[in-house]
Design goal:
The structure holds 3 protein chains of 3 kinds. Chain A folds into 2 domains: 209 residues, no CATH class; 75 residues. In chain A, 71% of the residues lie in helices and 2% in strands. Chain B is globular. Chain C is of the alpha/beta class. Chain C folds into 2 domains: 143 residues, 3-Layer(aba) Sandwich (Rossmann fold), CATH 3.40.50; 82 residues, Rossmann fold (3-Layer(aba) Sandwich). In chain C, the strands form 2 sheets. Chain C has a 6-stranded mixed sheet with strand order 6-7-8-3-9-10, with helices on both faces. In chain C, strands 2-1-4-5 form a 4-stranded antiparallel sheet, with helices on one face. In chain C, helix 3 runs parallel beside helix 7. Chain C is globular, with a radius of gyration of 19 Å. The chains are: A mainly alpha, B mainly alpha, C alpha/beta. Chains A and B meet through helix 5, helix 11 and helix 13 of A and helix 4, helix 9 and helix 11 of B.
């Protein structure tokens, strides 16, 4: 009970801080905060895909699928954000479900390359077909909604909108991960054959994780395009995919909050090296390599490492490690 | 008719380039089990070296090719020693390190060449070989094709006839058994990446006068290399070479009639189809379980 | 009544005939040993029954239904579950969680009920069932430990618990005694018999002849992918063909 009270108090404080935060920021930083909020959903939805042990390289493109869905619905059917947001999720999930049939006949390396190829093919389709996708220049003029007096074109209202949507999505993702389904996804990751032998249809669970992840990243894509107003194929290329990978890996992918931590810390870091625009990608590359080599479990693992090193708060007593 | 013949020749020359960098990717994957995502950037560095030394500083084209090959080989060896060897038990970690390397190399190229439009290298070989009155092949392309063939044959000879080549193939078939046989895996990995990187550097150097050089040219290279590798069969060198030429012809013809983007989309779809229908590729025989 | 009938099953890998026209039946409630020298095709037979390989020819009939060519998870759902050679466990999960995964068939839930926690009653039943299985296998005290921290004997017991949790009717055990000392082997034999007494049919592949002879009701001997002999342990022990195959194999 005590720890539950702690959680509630901590959660409320965090929420209050998140609500108060934009009022202390300059306009430029408010902008950044909105993108960070959206990116948190992108990495957290990626986490559920990786739970089964498959690292997909199509996640960024799936975010684009959501974004393009929202943009197309807005431009050609003139429906508002309240419709485009769920539709982006549903359509992205549908595209993901179709891709499952070819992609999940493969695993590991083949899946990685296959997902990369499928993603590039989708991106090239956006470039090739100027109608309806707008080619390399993409689409523009996608607007956020207006409710009574509140204009969501403004940063702070849009931030609250995005924050509510993202928090709701994170909550659902958290529930899924801690449910029976989450346990089965872990099982598929660690020993697929053993899971299969007790009746787990591994193909179905891999697909399920991929479809769920795509649904939520589709929503993230829609949130992004409604704020930016424009969408281009290059926003969702390998570059952005690599950013997702870096956030997840630097943050740590063994815990739910790891990728979120990675996204937040690296966005702050990114802001601090703003002056070195030209070499920014190289700095990122170096950070990626160094964290793989020296902190393979990510930032999230630092507290437990520190605990183990100082000898306090040991959680498990390693019994009978000898007999093997 | 003229167009078909011309495309056939162009496709053949393109195939030589594709084979040069795809073979390296296959070799590195086969021996070390890691997908080198920065392979396209190795080609890019090769091209940049030629641009810098030959086009900017007026040094001899052949000298520039030599420097390109040596430089890219050194980068490859560096990657093996400091990125792939420490992560050899986790192929994903190796792959991600190579993505990090990709960014670093792109930034270095931007710093060396500056921003702005793509660079061009004036062809060192002038003139065109006219065949049957309507077929025109610039000497530059003939030179590239000959060198690619020469490099590939040398590689083939090395792998099939020398003891080291035999050890290299043994490692790619079964790492553990080879280690038990007393083969030094680290040394073989060095050799594999050395060969792979030098071929990538050579490909870049040969392509330099025929293409637009910019820091992001590696992207198309790696996509092509993936398509060729998968279609040819992961781990199969002869499959990669065959697939390189077939895909180059296919790509050239589709580009002529429908445009380059459609050609690449077709290639990617083809690759996904091969992944599903025959994951071992056209020449692959190994069954991975 | 036979629970499992193997009818003229062949399995070919390229040019190699791993199983050649094999037929035998397994009766409900027995412990059947599948033995033979190395490379005889025992493991291949297992993988065929459990659906990890597709048979080249022939039928595998389980409770009157041809199951050859079905996927492993579908076969598990029908009530056939296998354990693996060595210690294939979810090393990163606790003992409790390992067995909880084993309850997949009864406890799985769909996305909707997982999110809204509508599956709570079912999950509680599964948890009780896990506790029951752990109690039965003598692992109750270790339920919070990580699987990777267990000694070998307990790891094997855990592997069996995972299988049991799926409530199978037929259990395929792949070399359950490999690498064990005599004491652990005896303990494992006891457990196996206990499982049989609870109404399970068991087929096991094993090299430890002492354990096989002491445990099995009936033996099926394979050699070079062919059926060599069948009989009670006493009959097999005195079968000339079997003796020759084993001696010939060890030369």
């Amino acid at each position: 009970m005590n720890s539950n009270t702690q959680k509630i108090v901590g959660g409320s404080l965090l929420l209050a801080a998140l609500i108060a935060l934009p009022h202390f920021l300059k306009f430029h930083h408010q902008d950044l905060l909105i993108f960070l909020t959206i990116n948190v959903l992108a990495v957290s939805s990626y986490r559920i895909v990786t739970l089964t042990g498959e690292w997909s390289l199509i996640h960024a493109v799936m975010m684009g699928v959501g974004g393009y869905t929202a943009a197309l619905l807005f431009k050609y059917y003139e429906v508002g954000m309240w419709v485009t947001l769920p539709m982006a999720g549903i359509l992205t999930a549908a595209v993901a479900a179709l891709l499952c049939f070819p992609l999940f006949r493969t695993t590991q390396f083949y899946f990685l390359i296959g997902s990369f190829a499928a993603g590039e093919a989708i991106r090239l389709i956006w470039i090739q077909f100027v109608f309806p996708f707008g080619g390399t220049g993409g689409l523009s003029g996608v607007e956020p909604p207006m409710v009574g007096e509140i204009d969501f074109m403004e940063s702070i209202p849009y931030y609250y909108l995005a924050l509510s949507v993202v928090l709701l999505c994170l909550f659902i993702l958290y529930l899924i991960e801690n449910s029976r389904i989450g346990l089965t996804l872990h099982a598929v990751h660690w020993k697929a054959a053993l899971a299969e032998s007790v009746g787990v249809d591994t193909w179905r669970y891999r697909s399920l994780a991929f479809v769920i992840g795509s649904f939520f990243v589709g929503i993230a894509g829609a949130l992004k395009v409604h704020y930016l107003g424009t969408i281009t194929p290059n926003q969702f290329g390998v570059g952005f995919m690599v950013f997702i990978l870096i956030w997840v890996i630097v943050g740590g992918y063994n815990k739910f909050y790891g990728p979120i931590l990675g996204a937040v810390v690296l966005t702050l870091f990114d802001e601090s090296i703003r002056g070195f625009a030209e070499v920014r990608p190289a700095i990122y590359g170096a950070v990626l390599i160094l964290s793989i080599l020296f902190l393979p479990l990510g930032l999230e693992s630092i507290p437990s490492k520190f605990k183990a090193w100082s000898g306090i708060g040991k959680e498990r007593d390693p019994l009978s490690l000898t007999d093997k | 008719m003229e167009l078909i013949f011309q495309s056939l020749i162009n496709g053949l020359i393109q195939g030589g380039f594709f084979a040069l960098f795809a073979v390296g990717l296959v070799l590195i994957f086969g021996v070390m089990g890691v997908v080198n995502f920065a392979h396209g950037e190795l080609v890019m560095v090769g091209a940049y070296t030629v641009w810098l030394l030959h086009a900017q500083h007026g040094l001899s084209y052949f000298f520039a090719i030599g420097v390109a090959v040596v430089l890219v080989t050194l980068i490859g060896l560096f990657m093996e020693r400091f990125l792939f060897r420490p992560t050899q038990n986790d192929p994903l970690a190796g792959l991600i390190c190579s993505i990090g390397m990709l960014f670093i190399l792109q930034v270095v190229a931007t710093l060396v060449g500056g921003e702005g439009p793509s660079k061009q290298v004036p062809p060192p070989f002038h003139g065109t070989w006219v065949l049957f009155e309507y077929l025109r092949i610039p000497y530059q392309r003939i030179f590239s094709l000959l060198i690619s063939f020469f490099a590939l044959s040398t590689l083939w000879y090395f792998l099939t006839r020398s003891k080291l080549g035999w050890a290299l193939r043994a490692v790619s078939l079964d790492k553990e058994a080879s280690a038990l046989q007393g083969i030094n895996i680290n040394r073989i990995s060095m050799i594999a990446i050395g060969i792979g990187a030098s071929l990538a550097g050579l490909a870049g150097a040969l392509m330099a006068p025929l293409t637009n050089i910019n820091p992001h040219m590696g992207h198309n290279v790696i996509i092509t290399a993936f398509i060729v590798t998968i279609v040819g069969g992961v781990g199969s060198l002869s499959g990669a070479v065959l697939a390189a030429f077939l895909y180059a012809l296919f790509h050239t013809f589709v580009t002529v009639y429908f445009g380059g983007t459609i050609a690449t989309i077709c290639g990617l779809v083809l690759m996904v189809v091969v992944l599903i229908v025959k994951p071992t590729g056209i020449m692959g025989t190994r069954i991975s379980e | 009544m036979p629970v499992l009938e193997i009818k003229n099953v062949s399995k070919q890998f390229g040019g190699l005939m791993a199983l050649n026209n094999i037929s035998f039946q397994v009766e409900t409630g027995e412990i059947r040993g599948l033995i033979g020298p190395n490379g005889a095709g025992k493991s291949t037979m297992f993988k065929n029954i459990a659906g990890f390989y597709a048979t080249t020819k022939g039928e595998i009939v389980y409770q009157g239904q041809n199951i050859s060519g079905h996927k492993p998870h579908a076969i598990a759902e029908m009530g056939i579950v296998r354990t693996f050679q060595e210690t294939t466990l979810f090393q990163e999960l606790t003992v409790f969680e390992n067995v909880l995964v084993g309850c997949h068939i009864q406890a799985r839930s769909n996305l909707f009920s997982a999110i809204f926690k509508l599956d709570k009653p079912r999950q509680n039943i599964a948890r009780d069932q896990v506790l029951e299985v752990l109690e039965f296998m003598g692992l109750s005290e270790r339920q919070e430990q990580l699987a990777s921290e267990l000694p070998l004997g307990s790891q094997r017991a855990l592997a069996m618990s995972i299988a049991l949790a799926s409530k199978p009717k037929l259990m395929l055990m792949d070399e359950p005694f490999a690498g064990m000392n005599p004491e652990e082997t005896l303990h494992m034999m006891e457990l196996t018999r206990k499982v049989q007494e609870s109404g399970m049919t068991i087929i096991l592949v094993e090299h430890d002849m002492k354990a096989v002879m002491g445990l099995c009701d009936y033996l099926t001997v394979l050699n070079f992918g062919q059926l060599l002999a069948e009989g009670t342990p006493a009959e097999i022990r005195n079968n000339d063909k079997v003796i020759e195959a084993y001696l010939g194999g060890s030369k």
